[in-house]
Write a structure and sequence with these properties.
globular, alpha+beta, 25% strand, 32% helix, 85 residues, three-stranded antiparallel β-sheet
Length: 85
């Protein structure tokens, strides 16, 4: 999937591909998951952390539901109520 996804997050205009997101997270260790998670590069990340690393937007400026919606646009697997990892 090389399609560019355009969206606005906390007032910041973002244009990314799935590969952009994967590339930006490749050297990022996942933080502990408390509730919502996304699988990227074979690892599970908190959705806020994944979107923060991909976009550079401070996660305090958006909610997890926004992160889940945008990450789903890229076709990533999402899970809720994930046991802590």
């Amino acid at each position: 999937m090389n399609d560019v996804v355009h969206f606005v997050l906390a007032g910041v205009s973002c244009s990314l591909t799935r590969q952009d997101v994967e590339r930006r997270l490749i050297h990022t260790d996942p933080a502990p998951i408390t509730l919502h998670a996304v699988s990227i590069n074979g690892l599970w990340y908190p959705v806020g952390q994944a979107l923060e690393v991909a976009t550079g937007v401070d996660p305090r400026k958006f909610r997890s539901r926004e992160a889940r919606r945008h990450l789903a646009q890229f076709g990533f697997e999402l899970q809720s109520s994930v046991p802590r990892r």
